[in-house]
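Quick one: structure for this chain?
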Amino acid sequence: MQMNDHDIELRPGQRIRLSALGRERCKLFKMDTGVVAGKSSRGGVRVLMDGRKQPQTLHRSYIEAE
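Got it. Here's what it folds into:
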């Protein structure tokens, strides 16, 4: 069975960065790195981006482990 980056489990506190798709779709983010804050429903991940005060919900395909 072939694993891709989306199959890797992300844990709260783990460092992430925006994937190529995430950088394309989230152009308003000043920084492209952050920390996983938790899980959300429907494939989403709560992420506290560097330089922000509140976590954002991003689709799993928008981020990758650092």
